[in-house]
């Protein structure tokens, strides 16, 4: 079995009487891209700050690479690379200067730092950038953010909503960089954009009401919800009407399409009816379960 | 040690590239020139105004200007320079909390005490630099124009005022470790300085008030000896040290 990079047990935290985390348990195995899904304000950032030892939890424990996280004095942070939701850097530095600063405060060797900085800036597409950070766009800052987070080869990369504020092109770039980074590290990233999770994650957890509502691999999560049914599209509009008359649990969709939610036997009855009455069919399609439908169910 | 120096290097770069170093140098140099210049121009200005003053019935006798006039100006102007210094550098910590730049440094494993230490050392150094510059310029001109020998205990007096500045800056550091924005840092620092000022009016506590270090005229004229300030000096040094230690403790507990 893979080693657990991150283990959170019964984490609780409230802010001024408002309970944000109410007993959160979470484990992240090594070499996964772990999607941490929740609505805005569900407690994703709070959880991440607790992992980084920036917040003092009311109760519960966090272990990173088997070491306990202590608030304030965070030795465990040497295993972690962190990308905040809106990363801010010293605007008067160039990207290379900023990475040098990061490397020096985390105690990297000079030669290693130089090669690693260049390598990472190339990875995130800032290799030729000699300007100061002051003039950078949000997407560029996000990419520099990933570079600084990966600098000291962390075992765990934590990204707080890395794609939320970006346009589609910027989002794709970030997701591609994260996929490329998968070779080197385990990635935990929070988001409320489910298509991003479906695209790159191997595992995911739903955070709802300060607790993990569901956790597993993407396949496991999908299979937790059976097929959502079928779409049947007829060639002729009157055929669709006839089908509805015969099977009153069909629902009309757009134009000649009908949707069906029900058990398999009932579906075969419909297909038999179609064959016997020689109804021309445009398509029959299975509705795939999506994380979105699962998410909506979980957070209901 | 390496992370500490790296953070200090960043602080120096920040001071230089954000233009604060230039402002600091210009400000203190300007004050340095102004002190002897005002002293030198006083007789001439008096002459200019003598006609209009004579109309209102005032006669201006020959105004005597010497090194003491120049140093008088110096100690009258240096509070303004200190206030400007505090205003310029009061957001050294708070702007890092606000923008989240410190967060990234801390998640890289930088110890929090190193942040406090690096910033404190830099602020003390900048104050020393500015103050030294202002003092040197005033000193140069004063020696050139007048006989500087009449300013007794000049260096002790200057050191007192420098120490007062260090004490005020340690207050800025302390409140920066506690508070969220620089306006409250300025207000609280100002409040404590005022308190120290009021303390001078209480006979028993007077000797221990760091604000006593601002009042160096009698030392300059040779009316008093430096040992009168002994308790105030000790108090200022002790408080400054305590404030910095408290700042580290606050910083360790701070949720960023």
The helix fraction of chain B, in percent, is over 70%
- The run of helices and strands of chain A is EEEHEEEHHHEHEHEEHEHEEHEH
User: Mean pLDDT of chain A, rounded to whole units?
Assistant: 88
The most extensive contact between chains is: A-B, 29 and 28 residues
| Total beta-strand segments of chain A | 14
Compute the separation of the termini of chain A in Å. Answer: 34 Å
CATH homologous superfamily placement of the largest domain in chain A: P-loop containing nucleotide triphosphate hydrolases
Coarse shape of chain B? elongated
- Quaternary form: heterodimer
Could you describe the largest sheet of chain A, including whether it forms a barrel? 6 strands, mixed
- Rg of chain B from C-alpha positions? 21 Å
Biggest β-sheet of chain B, characterized? none
Question: What is the helix/strand order of chain B?
Answer: HHHHHHHHHHH
Span between termini of chain B: 23 Å
How much helix, percentage-wise, in residues of chain A?
25-40%
- Global mean pLDDT of chain B: 91
User: CATH first level of the largest domain in chain A: which class?
Assistant: Alpha Beta
């Amino acid at each position: 079995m893979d080693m657990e990079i991150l283990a959170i047990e019964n984490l609780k935290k409230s802010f001024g009487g408002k309970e944000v985390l109410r007993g959160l348990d979470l484990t992240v195995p090594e070499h996964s891209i772990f999607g941490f899904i929740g609505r805005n304000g569900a407690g994703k950032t709070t959880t991440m700050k607790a992992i980084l030892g920036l917040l003092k939890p009311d109760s519960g424990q966090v272990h990173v690479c088997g070491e306990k996280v202590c608030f304030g004095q965070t030795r465990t942070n040497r295993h972690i690379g962190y990308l905040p939701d809106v990363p801010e850097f010293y605007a008067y530095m160039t990207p290379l200067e900023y990475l040098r600063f990061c490397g020096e405060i985390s105690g990297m060797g000079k030669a290693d730092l130089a090669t690693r900085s260049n390598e990472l800036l190339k990875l995130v597409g800032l290799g030729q950038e000699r300007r100061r950070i002051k003039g950078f766009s949000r997407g560029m800052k996000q990419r520099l953010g990933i570079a600084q987070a990966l600098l000291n080869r962390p075992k765990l990369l934590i990204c707080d909503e890395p794609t939320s504020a970006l346009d589609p092109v910027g989002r794709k770039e970030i997701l591609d960089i994260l996929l490329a980074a998968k070779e080197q590290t385990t990635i935990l990233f929070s988001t409320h954009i489910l298509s991003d999770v479906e695209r790159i994650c191997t595992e995911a957890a739903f955070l709802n009401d300060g607790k993990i509502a569901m956790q597993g691999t993407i396949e496991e999560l999908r299979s937790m919800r059976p097929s959502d049914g079928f779409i049947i599209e007829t060639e002729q509009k009157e055929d669709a009407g006839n089908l509805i008359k015969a099977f009153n649990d069909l629902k009309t969709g757009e134009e000649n399409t009908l949707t069906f939610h029900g058990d398999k036997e009932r579906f075969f009855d419909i297909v038999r009816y179609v064959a016997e009455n020689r109804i021309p069919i445009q398509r029959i399609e299975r509705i795939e379960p999506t994380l979105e439908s699962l998410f909506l169910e979980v957070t209901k | 040690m390496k992370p500490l120096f790296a953070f200090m290097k960043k602080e120096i770069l920040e001071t230089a590239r954000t233009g604060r170093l230039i402002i600091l140098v210009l400000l203190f140099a300007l004050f340095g020139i102004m002190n002897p210049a005002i002293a030198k121009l006083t007789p001439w200005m008096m002459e200019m105004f003598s006609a209009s003053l004579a109309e209102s019935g005032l006669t201006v006798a020959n105004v005597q200007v010497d090194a003491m006039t120049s140093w008088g100006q110096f100690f009258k102007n240096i509070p303004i320079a200190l206030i400007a210094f505090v205003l310029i550098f009061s957001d050294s910590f708070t702007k890092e909390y606000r923008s989240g730049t410190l967060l990234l440094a801390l998640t890289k494993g930088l110890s929090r005490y190193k942040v406090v230490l690096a910033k404190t050392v830099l602020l003390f150094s900048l104050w020393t630099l500015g103050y030294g510059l202002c003092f040197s310029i005033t000193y140069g001109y004063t020696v050139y124009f007048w006989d500087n020998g009449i300013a007794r205990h000049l260096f002790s007096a200057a050191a007192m005022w420098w120490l007062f500045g260090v004490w005020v800056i340690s207050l800025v550091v302390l409140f920066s470790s506690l508070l969220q924005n620089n306006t409250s840092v300025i207000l609280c620092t100002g409040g404590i300085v005022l308190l120290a000022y009021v303390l001078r009016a209480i006979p028993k506590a007077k000797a221990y008030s760091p604000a006593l270090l601002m009042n160096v005229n009698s030392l300059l004229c040779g009316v008093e000896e430096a040992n009168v300030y002994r308790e105030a000096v000790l108090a200022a040094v002790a408080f400054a040290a305590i404030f910095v230690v408290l700042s580290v403790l606050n910083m360790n507990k701070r949720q960023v």
